[in-house]
Amino acid sequence: MTSAAPSTSLPLQIAITTGEPAGVGPELTAQALAGAAAHWPTAQFTVLGDASLLAERARAVGVDWAALVADGKRVRVQHTALGAPSLAGRLNAANGRYVLDLLDSAIDGAVAGRFDAIVTAPLQKSTINDAGVPFTGHTEYLAERTHTPRVVMMLAGTGKRPLRVALATTHLPLKDVSAALTIESIVETLSIIDQDLRNHFGLPAPRILVTGLNPHAGENGYLGREEIEVITPALNRANDKGIDARGPYPADTLFQPRYLEQADCVLAMFHDQGLPVLKYATFGEGINVTLGLPIIRTSVDHGTALDLAGTGRADAGSLIAAIDTAVSMAQHRRVG
């Protein structure tokens, strides 16, 4: 599936799915958009969710939601009714389908060209699975719904030179990672990272540092042969395609300034190899970006925070950063 060409007329159209209704997504959306006019003057926002729920959660955190959406010029609501009443912090499988309906509407709108980008608040995988719908995560679902054969999960911090970490594999048991890594899959992943950093982040010559899989990057084969038989041949093939990818580096020493200051992205081999480092450095201000899609999608770096829902204590920093990045990516895409 390919998306329609982005509109050339301002403002940018950004969709926000509010995610799990029992979590912090609805209230963080209200908090983030309270400053929409000042923060994102070139964007209009469509918030996907139950209108009554959004108003209720906005009130809980002191946001005048009625005033925010009154004229529909800066922020509008695309109403989808809850499957069942929702209480903050209490999951209900009857709302699993509701969460997917929000996501489907955003994806369909982006593919059709009505939205320049989508931003997703956190959802609860267990609620969707308990509703009888097999669901692994946002990343995999977006790939399936857009018929994209390979996508790449990348998390990033904010700042002048943000730390970006992409993953060669995503939500897999550790025992399955080695078998999932092939020369072809790593080359495809590097190609997606290189292309999207150029097209959506304005980087003319991205430099990608690649971790090994094993301790000490395999120690010349004594601690594993994936670096010799898979990762290094993949890097050679990527280099032949004009991609500046270097490694494999031992993951325990790669994440330090003397390496990272020369890198635009790190490609880690599995989820818990790269993301703990990034989240330690950026949690609360980091974002999740799905690369390789025909549409632009960003998200927060945290979960539904059920214990904080409805309390007003959740921090909207990550969602604000995700919106910042979606707007920036959409602008890069628009200007070519």
From TrEMBL:
Cofactor(s) essential for the protein: Zn(2+); Mg(2+); Co(2+)
Entry's cofactor comment: Binds 1 divalent metal cation per subunit. Can use ions such as Zn(2+), Mg(2+) or Co(2+).
Entry binding sites for substrate: H138, T139, K279, N288, R297
Database matches in InterPro entries: PdxA (IPR037510), PdxA_fam (IPR005255)
Pathway terms, separated by semicolons: Cofactor biosynthesis; pyridoxine 5'-phosphate biosynthesis; pyridoxine 5'-phosphate from D-erythrose 4-phosphate: step 4/5
Primary localisation category: cytoplasm
Binding site for a divalent metal cation: H171, H216, H271
Residues in coiled coil: none
Domain of life: Bacteria
Record key words, sorted: Cobalt, Cytoplasm, Magnesium, Metal-binding, NAD, NADP, Oxidoreductase, Pyridoxine biosynthesis, Zinc
Record-listed E.C. numbers: 1.1.1.262
Catalyzed chemical reaction(s): 4-(phosphooxy)-L-threonine + NAD(+) = 3-amino-2-oxopropyl phosphate + CO2 + NADH
Gene Ontology MF, one: 4-hydroxythreonine-4-phosphate dehydrogenase activity
One matching Pfam family: PdxA
Subcellular locations according to the entry: Cytoplasm
Other known facts: The active site is located at the dimer interface.
Subunit structure: Homodimer.
PANTHER family according to UniProt: 4-HYDROXYTHREONINE-4-PHOSPHATE DEHYDROGENASE
NCBIfam families documented for this protein: pdxA, PRK01909.1
Function: Catalyzes the NAD(P)-dependent oxidation of 4-(phosphooxy)-L-threonine (HTP) into 2-amino-3-oxo-4-(phosphooxy)butyric acid which spontaneously decarboxylates to form 3-amino-2-oxopropyl phosphate (AHAP).
Homology family: Belongs to the PdxA family.
Protein name as it appears in the record: 4-hydroxythreonine-4-phosphate dehydrogenase
Gene that specifies this protein: pdxA
